[in-house]
Structures are given as C-alpha cells and as structure tokens.
Amino acid sequence: MQAVDKLFKELRAAIPELPVTLTSHVMRHTWNERFSEQAEAMNLPEVAEQRARNSQQGWSDNSKIAATYTRRYTDRKGRELALRLQEELDDKLRDDK
Predict the structure, then answer these.
(1) How high is the pLDDT of residue 37?
(2) What whole-number distance in Å separates Cα of residue 93 and Cα of residue 87?
(3) Average pLDDT of 4-25?
(4) 42 pLDDT higher than 80
C-alpha cells in the first residue's frame, strides 16, 4: 500500500489541481460501486458477480472483503427499495379512498 500512497503523492506533486479527496481508498470504493451497477445492468447472478469482483480485485474466491466495498451501493439500493415500497403503499391508500 505504501507504493500506491507514494504514487498518489507523486501525482499530486506533478498535478497540484488533483483533488485531495482522490485517493486509492476512494477509487476502490467507486470502482466497486460502478462494478455493482454494471453487474445489475447485465442481470448477473449474485454469485457470479461476487466471483467476478473477487477475481478482478485479486481477492480469493471466498473473500468477504467485497462487503466492505459494496456497502455504499447496497445502502443506496436499500433506500431505493424502501422508497418504492412507501410510494406503492401511498398509491394503494390513495386508491382505497
């Protein structure tokens, strides 16, 4: 990880306008969120998505670390589902009047 941190330090020295928030940590989370979006768009089964993600990230087949990097996506999807349920209930209550 020190090599990656050094790379970002050198990038910032060469390109001062790079945002301070651009870090390897943020990039890993963003990459994993985009990966989840693409897997969903392709209707990739969950097991296949997990295997593909582990392979692309260089993690072992049984690694559970993906849960750390997919939390943001999972949270967003949970909020979307909850909102959809609320809207459906609201529509049903409105129709019952």
Answers:
(1) 94
(2) 10
(3) 90
(4) yes
C-alpha distances in angstroms, 58 versus 3, 25, 51, 53, 65?
Answer: 17, 16, 10, 8, 11
CA distance 89 to 95: 10
Beta carbons of 10 and 18 less than 8 angstroms apart:
no
> What contacts 69, CB < 8 A, 6 or more positions away?
28, 29, 32, 57
- CA dist 83 and 91 (Å) reads 12
CA dihedral 21, 27, 30, 35 (to 10 degrees): 170
Q: Specify the residue for token string 């582990």.
A: 54
Please report which residue ranges of the chain form alpha helices under DSSP H. Answer: 2-14, 24-41, 46-57, 66-69, 71-95
- Domain regions of the chain by residue span: 21-96
- The helix/strand/coil state of 59 is coil
Under DSSP, is residue 85 helix (H, G, I), strand (E, B) or coil? helix
